[in-house]
What we know:
With 404 residues, the chain is of the alpha+beta class. The protein has eleven helices and 13 strands.
Amino acid sequence: MRIRPHEEPVPPRAHPDALPWHRPPDPAGVDPAILAALLRRHGWQRRGGAAGRYGRWTPPGPAGAGTSLLVPESRAYPDSDDLLAEALDALARSDTPAAREVLICLAVPSDEIRWWRETPSGPAGAASWGHEEQLRDAGRQLLLAAALATRARAGYHGARHRRAATALLDHVLVGPAAEDGRLTAFAPVAVARPLAVRLHQALHAAREAIDYRRATGGMDAFAGAVEAGVSRELTEAIGALVRGTEGAGVAVAWAPAAGVPEGCAPGAEPVEFSPGDLPVLREAAARYLHEEPSVPVRITGAVVRLRRSGPRGEGTVRLRVLAGAEVPHVRVTLDEEDYRIAGHAHLVGLPVRVRGRLERRGGFRRLTGASGVVPVQVDEAERDRLMKSLQENLDFFEEACGEE
Length: 404
């Protein structure tokens, strides 16, 4: 018998220089209409050109005075390849964010997720020291909440699906923060569109639930919003984005090359939140934590730590989960007999199987009511692998299990 982890394997990360983001787009593969759509989205202005043949585009802001791109309207224009090559070269040489973002979306068709915070500025528009850090932290929380919602609908995820959701974020590129307190994430359509779709739907559902609560005093809308991806993690992320600001917002723009996903609006408006929403967000987060039920499970795991206060009686065991639950580790309190069985299994390098309820308290890292501990037979190769893994990574496992 071979035990495989419950979570999907995480693919190894590519070296940064090998990622498609770092390769300039091939002019032969660029659709002029998509390039024009991206230029318009990122603030470039069309200022003339030969109608039906090409357009002249200038970048936003003062940089537009002496710079322009000639972009053919279609491949039917005789010099379209040359014009596209020159336009892409000019974009690559430009140091403006508007140019870099267009190139990123051409290199890898991506949905764009933008979030911003409106904070009181200091002299000459200076921002506080921690503003960009708060902007990034809140944005990552939003993306992680959406990634968790692509794995399961739950009011509180805790440690469940965390590994797979974090792996999904590895495919998302985040640009530098703009001077106006904005940050953009690029979610490749091929692997991360579900994340962008779920975030788009969850934000709108959260906004509607907040409005319903403030208008009627009822929290019922938050229960239905779970199906759209709203959770404790999302409400806390929105709170982190809004806290300490005069307002904040999130907008999702679909990749022109991939079109609008099913069930989503083509030109969705940004979803905005204000400090007045914070009490409702805190109330919703507490409600989700309280109402998410414990889960009956039968877990197979490798024993990585044993502890009890004396030579006899019950003790605590920490398991690295191999199957049966969506968390990496759990802590289990066992009676004397089950503790003895777990200890023997640990010594001979065998995993154990145990029944119980995965408790929401502590983030679904604790198994209560545990019973029926039995060793699980595995082949020699699997036993050797488990023993080697435990010996090499024991410190890591103990550290990971300690967050309770």
